[in-house]
Amino acid sequence: MITGIKGTRFRRAAAVTVTTGAVLAAGAFGAAPAGAVTTPTIAAAGGYVMNNGTAKTLYTKAADTQRSTGSTTKIMTAKVVLSQPNLNLDAKVTIQKAYSDYIVANTASSAHLIVGDKVTVRQLLYGLMLPSGCDAAYALADKFGSGSTRAARVKSFIGKMNTTAKSLGMTKTKFDSFDGIGNGSNYSTPRDLTKLASSTMKSTTFRTVVKTKSYTAKTVTKTGSIRTMAAWTNTNTLLSSYSGTIGVKTGSGPEAKYCLVFAATRNGKTIIGTVLASTSITQRATDATKLLNYGFAQ
């Protein structure tokens, strides 16, 4: 029988031996998976990431908390337009003074469309998604809403946005604007917006638009001449900074702060996600980069 100090030492020594053996065994048999990645920390208040091919959730942070969406709303604007039956992307829309006045009144992001110019639906989609033109959003809502007045057509279009949201199972989403400049009831969640982006990315036209870094539209003026517009630059900086990026849309605002719906493909695997209410333009891209890296590592 072992007693006293010697016994205590023996028990400690035995414990150390057992522990060391357990550690060696764990190492040998790979208790920790090789290449295990640490869950990233992001500045954004909310985030969600999924594997676009399998719809498997890869990351969540307040993923179902409703927040203001800013111009990520415009993904739904595009979705509604692209869902129109017998859509003619080359149909021309005449730019109205109301669109320009709206931009000025709201100090809104703009595609700098010229009143009186005829612009195709395709060009409006580029103006909507690259420079985040609220004038382009207004033109599309006016074109594809129903009604005898502009106000009625806009209301109809926003109705289509909400109907589409319901059909996609976006249960925590509501739109009250065509561009994200809300009237108090324009909100979604990281999970819902990712679901929307995944669905909209099934459109070849949408995919082509949102992966474009720069686009120069040639519009038709009142006199019938061709106007070459100043190039529209995509506000999604990931297109230049993150290899494999294929979209999708930025958003910002006093309430929304800095948002980004993002997607990238590497080695045949597409990761898609959303960050809402990040702290700056730079930080939302950093957040998205961390989440993409995390998604691809799984």
How would you portray this structure in words?
The protein is an alpha+beta fold. It contains ten helices and 13 strands. The protein has helices spanning 4-29, 74-82, 97-106, 121-129, 134-144, 150-167, 190-200, 204-210, 238-241, 281-296; strands at 46-51, 57-61, 67-68, 92-94, 118-120, 187-188, 214-215, 218-220, 226-228, 232-233, 245-253, 257-266, 269-278. The strands form five sheets. The protein has a five-stranded antiparallel sheet, with helices on both faces. Helix 2 runs parallel beside helix 7 (190-200) and helix 4 crosses helix 5. The longest helix has 26 residues, at 4-29. It is globular. The protein starts with a helix and ends with a helix. The model is unreliable at 1-32 (pLDDT under 50).
